[in-house]
Design a protein that fits this description.
The complex is a heterodimer. Chain A contains 19 helices and two strands. Chain A is mainly α. Chain A has two domains: 119 residues, no CATH class; 221 residues, Orthogonal Bundle (MetI-like fold). Chain A starts with a helix and ends in a 9-residue tail after the last helix. Chain B is mainly alpha-helical. Chain B is built from 13 helices and no strands. In chain B, helix 8 runs antiparallel to helix 9. Chain B is globular and about 75 Å long. The chains are: A mainly alpha, B mainly alpha. Chains A and B meet through helix 1, helix 10, helix 11, helix 12 and helix 14 of A and helix 1, helix 4, helix 5, helix 6 and helix 7 of B.
Chain lengths: 426, 275
């Protein structure tokens, strides 16, 4: 009979294979969809944070020739000739502006030099000092007509730093945006140094974002824990009612909630009016509670509080009430019983809620943008600024990459502690 | 004493949670272009209250177009997210599913990634394939952001599903599709609809991808609200806000009701009820 057993085994094997194949086929469409609509875009952002093809595409020959330049003296005539030709072409194809902007970031002043050079090269024609191409012939070996021309247009072409800046800007892959995002800078000779303190923007902002998120998490925990406890202790009917009070803000549009806080907290707003009417404030010393960090903190705590209360409640609900009664009946005070019996059992909820609030807080954009004013901005707002105003997309992508790393790290912690498949929605 | 303090503290937190939202409602009936209660409103003077902001919004072509955009994008994204999400949840619920944890992480990722990062990436990629400033681009973006909600809700419902029922159906001669449609689907339908409502609410409230990728033609209601708060702040946005609050209460009510109906899969439904 062994053959029959083997046969049964094989068919069991293949049926389990079929079942997992079926499961995979069901999941596959969503994976493909998320891959194309979400993961690939994230990848394209990360690529953009290190990929800088503008200069490399515009000045290919110049850069190829510069690669063999020893950076000691000035580059050879061939480099000057290629640069002149490619700068002219870049002007004609309207890419010179972008090229100049990039190079200018490495050595300021070069934007003007490049556009001036392009303008004057147009009037010079394809060969300097020779307006009749058919008579051009071979120039003498030591003649440097292009170098002379460019030097005649601007002295900057006689500085090795200019060419170093072009060579650096021409690197197709660059860590520049990440260095920028970490307040580091690379001098033209390649050394990495920290920005002088007064120019440091992003690290302090990142630090502030983490600090504010931590403060909001603590605030949510302090406000949310007693509330979750109250709901968990209430009889079922009342618990459902109280839960609704937590769910109303959870479902209400974020923009509505943010608008509410503007209405309440602005200087001519409801809270200030109440304080003035109650005589607690003079009409001229109304409190500035919005368009600053206070506004950001208050509105974000409001927005994120349900994300703390709901996981806390779902854990507390599973703790049998007689544990606490037993602890107190054995002679413990309420606080002893709470600290040694109840609190440890709620830790999974505390962890889940805190991580969730913290993860959501560090990536928050809308609320700080609307109520944060100048001082209440977070790292997300800087990403939006570089996306929409300064149009420094590489830097925006690098800042996004850093934020993504922070969130992914926290997410992994969340997954280890809580498990994503145990995540529930209110 | 301690108990009283506890209740008072919680009452204060509940006021903090709900009052700011409620304040908007009466202010939207302000006859004056102010964001605060006028003396007349406090005296309950009939003249101090009016529907002028509602009329302003209803008569404004931009708001109407925004509502149409929101509905078109929201409904399309929801359908897409629900179909893909339900299929995936069925696969993930199968005990034979290998690599579930990894798949789950990928599927959940749009929910935990900061929207600003997602929107920036989508802007880069969608522009490069000509989908920026199109409705389709926003539908795909919102569907991606909505799928985790569908997967989580439906997986939770399926976790409580008793697989003996489908086996019983099969033993009585039902084919897999018939068994799914007539036994499993009715029992998990409340979970599916809840997930769809979550996905719709996500799209209906989403503004960052619209800011980055939408053109003038794709402005949605939240996008107009954003402009209203940032640029020309007028009580008309309080009227829209009141409408959105009513809408949110409706969605919430529906989900709560479905939860009660989902008691066929008791434990999961109770779990899902509590975040």
């Amino acid at each position: 009979m062994p053959g029959v057993i083997a046969e049964a085994g094989r068919s069991r094997l293949s049926s389990s294979f079929l079942r997992s194949l079926k499961a995979w086929l069901l999941v596959l469409p969503l994976l493909a969809f998320i891959g194309v609509t979400f993961i690939v875009p994230l990848g394209s952002m990360l690529t953009r944070s290190v990929h800088a093809p503008v200069v490399a595409d515009a000045l290919p020959e110049t850069l190829a020739l510069l690669r063999s330049w020893d950076a000691a003296g000035l580059p050879g005539e061939a480099v000057y000739a290629a640069a002149a030709r490619e700068i002219r072409t870049a002007r004609e194809t309207r890419t010179l502006g972008q090229v100049a902007t990039r190079i200018n970031r490495l050595k300021s002043g070069l934007r003007g030099v490049l556009s001036r050079t392009a303008r004057q090269l147009r009037s010079i024609g394809p060969r300097p000092g020779d307006h009749e191409p058919e008579r051009a012939g071979q120039p003498p070996d030591d003649a440097t007509p292009w170098r002379d021309t460019l030097l005649g247009i601007d002295d900057a072409w006689g500085e090795a730093d200019t060419w170093l800046a072009i060579r650096r800007a021409g690197e197709r892959f660059t860590a520049r945006h990440y260095l920028n995002a970490l307040d580091l800078t690379q001098s033209v000779d390649g050394g990495v140094v920290a920005q002088p303190p007064e120019l440091r923007i992003y690290l302090p902002l990142l630090g502030r974002t983490l600090l504010v998120s931590l403060a909001i998490t603590v605030l949510c925990l302090v406000l949310g824990y007693p509330v979750a406890y109250l709901i968990a202790q209430a009889p079922p009917k009342r618990a459902n009612l109280l839960l609704l009070l937590v769910l109303v803000p959870f479902w209400t549009s974020l923009l509505v909630r943010t608008t509410s806080w503007i209405v309440l907290l602005q200087s001519q707003g409801v809270v200030n009016d109440l304080l003035v009417a109650a005589g607690l404030l003079g009409d001229e010393d109304r409190l500035a509670m919005i368009y600053n960090m206070t506004g950001t903190m208050v509105a974000m705590t409001h927005v994120l509080l349900p994300f703390m209360v709901l996981p806390l409640y779902s854990v507390m609900r599973t703790i049998p009430p007689h544990y606490m009664r037993a602890a107190t009946s054995l002679g413990g005070t309420f606080f002893q019983a709470f600290r040694r019996v109840y609190w440890p059992q709620t830790l999974p909820g505390v962890g889940a809620g805190s991580l969730l609030v913290f993860i959501l807080a560090i990536g928050y954009y809308i609320t700080p943008a609307l109520v944060g004013g100048r001082t209440g901005q977070l790292i997300s707002n800087m990403i939006a600024y570089h996306m929409q105003q300064s149009l420094n997309w590489g830097l925006a992508a690098a800042l996004g990459g850093l934020l993504l790393v922070c969130v992914v790290a926290l997410y992994l912690v969340f997954d280890r502690l809580v498990g994503v498949d145990r995540m529930r929605l209110g | 004493m301690g108990r009283l303090l506890h209740v008072a503290f919680c009452a204060a937190v509940f006021v903090f949670l709900v009052a700011p939202i409620l304040v908007i409602v009466p202010l939207s009936f302000n006859a004056e272009p102010y964001f605060t209660f006028t003396d007349g409103m406090l005296r309950l003077d009939a003249d101090a209250w009016s529907l002028r902001w509602y009329e302003a919004v209803a008569g404004d072509g931009e708001w109407r177009r925004a509502l149409v955009n929101s509905l078109v994008i929201g409904v399309s994204a929801t359908v897409l997210a629900t179909v893909l999400g339900v299929l995936a949840a069925l696969g993930l619920a199968s005990p034979a599913m290998p690599g579930r944890a990894v798949v789950m992480s990928v599927v959940i990722s749009p929910m935990v990634t900061p929207v600003i990062v997602a929107a920036a990436g989508m802007f880069f990629f969608y522009s490069s394939i000509g989908l920026a400033q199109t409705h389709l681009g926003l539908i795909l973006a919102h569907a991606a952001l909505g799928t985790p909600f569908v997967v989580i809700t439906v997986t939770a419902t399926l976790a409580g599903f008793n697989h003996d029922l489908t086996r019983a159906a099969a033993s009585l001669g039902a084919g897999p599709w018939y068994a799914f449609r007539s036994v499993q689907l009715p029992l998990v339908l409340p979970g599916i609809v809840s997930g769809a409502l979550f996905a719709f609410a996500t799209s209906f409230d989403e503004v960052v991808t619209v800011l980055f990728m939408g053109g003038v033609e794709q402005r949605t209601v939240p996008r107009e609200m954003w402009a209203g708060v940032r640029e020309q702040i007028s009580p008309a946005i309080l009227a829209v806000a009141t409408f959105l609050i009513a809408f949110a209460l409706l969605l919430m009510g529906l989900v709560q009701w479905l939860r009660g109906r989902g008691s066929g899969s008791e434990p999961a439904a109770r779990d899902a009820a509590t975040a």
